[in-house]
Amino acid sequence: MLAGLSRRLLDAARANGADQAEVSCSEESGLNVSVRMGEVETVESTRDRSIAVTVYFDGRKGSASTADLREESLATTVDQACAIARHTERDPAAGLADAELMATDLREFDSWHPWDIQADEAIDLALACEQAGRDADARLENSDGASASSGSTVSVYANSHGFVGRERGTHHSLGCALIAGRGEQMQRDGWYDIALAAEDLEPASAIGRKAAERAISRLAPRQVPTGAYPVLFSAEVARGLVGHLLGAVSGGALYRRASFLLDSVGTQIFPEWFALHELPFLPRGFRSASFDAEGVATRESALVEGGVLQRYVLGSYSARRLGLQTTANAGGVHNLQVASNAGDLPAMLAGMGTGLLVTQLMGQGVNTITGDYSRGAGGFWIQDGQIQYPVDGITIAGNLKDMFAAIEAVGSDVDHRSHIRTGSILVGRMTVAGEG
Q: Which residue range or ranges hold the Metalloprotease TldD/E N-terminal domain (predicted)?
């Protein structure tokens, strides 16, 4: 149905005089429940539809959207998009991606696994998760709750080059957050899992116990003396470092001259052993796709190889602004894999010897123009390769260029709950602001 609807809207855009047009249609449905302290807090069932039309009149762009499938509403949406385009300034970089770049090999990636779960079943699952955590230790007297969710999305992207691409996917999650201790000594932590297929989720009891273990481990935190130390980012926060790299090499930041990595393709940014690859064809990958948001065929490629930045992350608009070609990244990257060169977390701790293990980050103190990095952090102090005590109320600081160059190891303890797959990342030296 969505494909036929897209073709009709494209025909209407041409009839209104547009020389190029594109349509994105999607239908989503989902179930979300949350519980706290053994009681149901929310039950939400959702069903959404979105239809977006974008037209181009010789570089002048207009967009409009609707969720109404009535013929008069669809016609009005096209008319509005065309009216907007006629009143905008011409932009030489605007327009569809080049026709010869459109994907022709449209694949499935085992991403469709609907979960026939009813609201009462989801509630029972969330309650079991929370209860398993609360039962794990008497010091867990409070809870921030547990949640379970399931959703599915069907979408179509079509444009006036004749491209029509269909995608469908499901997503399911289960999580719990617990509070240990009392009064000013309370500490909060949690755990969650997310998967495309429900059978890939960790058991509810295991998630609850992991949340309990993490919350209890944070009791009685200390600070550390201000100084420069090795900092090990645990896998779940290490992907944030990759996210900062992506922000700096994305087209929008580059053509606005708002990146600390301007003109960096072909330069050494990381150690020589460091590699980062985009893998858009992974079965059950969170961002697996045959085409990007403009219909351009995706491809496996290196973003970083031998520590050298190989390319930027571009859609067709930003590529034209930079005088380059799209890298099939309109809408984002598709499954990034950071190559490991070290063992699991215990092995990483043993190799670090003494330093800080960061498991939580707070604040937004990252300047993508200069690369300056300063964030609140929590975690654990490591001595002789062993966890000694939890640490809280500190700040870690550096510059991302220096931090990238100072990466000493990437662990094999890969966190699979994201399209950015990385293990723990050890930065050889950072400023840690604590006591004194």
A: 21-85
